[in-house]
Amino acid sequence: MSISSGSAWVNKSASGMARYNLFRRVNWGRLGVIAVPGLWLGIFFFIPFLVVFKISLSESAIAVPPYSAMFEWNLEDAYATFKLNFGNYLYLIEDDFYLDAYISSVKIAAVSTFFTLLVGFPIAYLIARSKPSLRVVLLSLVILPFWTSFLLRVYAWMGFLKKNGIVNEFLLSTGIIDQPLIMLQTDFAVYIGIVYTYLPFMILPLYTALEKMDLTLLEAAEDLGSRPYQSFFLITLPLAIPGVIAGCLLVFIPAVGEFVIPALLGGSDTLMIGRVLWDEFFLNRDWPMASAVAIVMLVVLVLPIMLIRNAQGKEEVHS
Amino acid sequence: MKRRSIFLNTTAMLGFIFLYAPIISLIVYSFNKSKLVTVWGGWSLKWYTELFNNEQIMDAALVSFNIALISASLAVVLGTMAGFVLSRMGRFRGKMILSGWITAPLIMPEVITGLSLLLLFVAMENMFGWPAGRGTGTIIIAHTTFCMAYVAVIVQSRLASMDETLEEAAMDLGAKPSSLFFLITLPLIAPALISGWLLSFTLSLDDLVIASFVSGPGNSTLPMVIFSKVRLGVTPEVNALATIMIAIVAVGVLAAMYQMRRQTKLSSGQE
């Protein structure tokens, strides 16, 4: 190791040494770079969850803000009350509606992730196997929709799928159907919406994995008499697995908590937990219940995903 | 090889049609004279004039633009610091927790982020009287918080792939940390900062869910206005708005593409 190994302006000696230095002379620059984003995230990202947890344990009330105080005290008779209300969580368990919403969100997200993979794989494969100059063009074509408004892309499908929309008019005019299909405000429309909006998230990691692949492996397999579909399932697909996992996570994670797509394309019976939370908050104005839904969502859906991602990250470091 | 290409080309072609057909239909129907989406009434710029005369949409667009401008800039500053924490700070106490905080907004469902920030703002207002009411300021804080995660990840990957010898040389020659950063590191990571800023700007301009939670009455952003219009059905003015936004993005991406192709040609010419 040379004297200045590792990062330059940070004293990256052995960690024991660094701690020793910290006692002797505070490195203000280093401290600031750590403290500023740390404080910002602490206040605006971490503390909010504590507040949500606190409010999930209070009672809905007709007041501003619309929940009861957890801690009250009366100075005159030196009387303090501390109230915890687990009712919201009990209600979450007792009422099947919420359980159904959680399960249905996971189901919708999983099915659409699978279809995104089916649609995305051939595109990623084609891009990875085309000439470098064409690759840039095709990649830009994939990324371009991602830069345009998400909301407007979902909206575009409303015009496509509605009863007198473009798809129905086309099918009617060609005589494939005689009655317009009901597609908007169904689960089907939600699947289409998720596949459509999250397709770039699937294609890019798949492309990265496929592009890295050593093509001589396929030639070797062909020389040894392997058929193209055998080579695909035995060589290409296994080598693309890291991309498949990354892409599926990138689609599945945001899809579970999706609100805009079920609200615009889904029917009133399309249950998704993001929409339930939204309605609980904006329509019922039940802040404590919305908070309880959020906390359960955090524990049941988000934390496992974070742990998986962490484990994956560690694996990458080891390999 | 040939046979497979035909199958592959068709499926990929269908995929591209799937990606672009809805966008193209938005553009075409924004020039439609008729209000009915499926009835073609001839070419017209009627919806564009209606769009520019719609004060509600124009005001909201201005509000959104300002918010996106400020949030993206703040997010680049904070996100760059966070990117350094992730890749260049060595070990320190609490690094695991801080790294978790930095990347967690990327996978947090928007409804949770929005709700939790709103409840924080309400609690803070009750305790310290700040922020008094909600509006542009609270939306900027919220957008900065989730955009800085994206910037941090972009900056981190740029730092990780960067040649450190330049920084080492500067330090060996006695550069102070501050001059090292501004003279060497900053110019080297500038492309990452630009793409981080552009991504943050787009994300902020596009956000509906978080802004709906943390905005106050009378502070509607553009996505909030679009959403309330679109919920009632397809509106041709929104088609016109979408066409304008798509045109701006397309020009930007085409310019970036042209630049990239030129660079590829230059580097392949050198070889």
Number of helices of chain A: 13
* Residue runs with pLDDT of under 50 for 5 or more positions of chain A: 1-24
So what's the overall shape of chain A?
globular
Distance between the termini of chain A: 23 Å
Please tell me the CATH architecture of chain B by its name. Answer: Orthogonal Bundle
- Order the strands across the largest sheet of chain A as they lie in space: 1-2
Question: In terms of structural class, how would the helical and strand content of chain B be classed?
Answer: mainly alpha
Coarse morphology of chain B: globular
Question: Mean pLDDT across all residues of chain A, rounded?
Answer: 82
- In N-to-C order, the SSE pattern of chain A is HHEEHHHHHHHHHHH
N-to-C terminal Cα separation of chain B, in Å? Answer: 29 Å
The fraction of residues assigned to DSSP E strands of chain A is under 5%
Largest sheet of chain B: none
- What pair of chains forms the biggest interface? A-B, 97 and 102 residues
Mind sketching the topology for me?
The complex is a heterodimer of chains A (319) and B (271).
Chain A: H1 15-24, H2 28-56, E1 71-74, E2 79-82, H3 87-94, H4 96-128, H5 132-147, H6 150-161, H7 166-174, H8 187-212, H9 216-223, H10 228-256, H11 260-265, H12 273-282, H13 287-318
Antiparallel strand pairs in A: 1-2
Chain B: H1 2-30, H2 46-53, H3 55-88, H4 95-107, H5 110-128, H6 136-160, H7 165-172, H8 177-206, H9 209-214, H10 222-230, H11 236-270
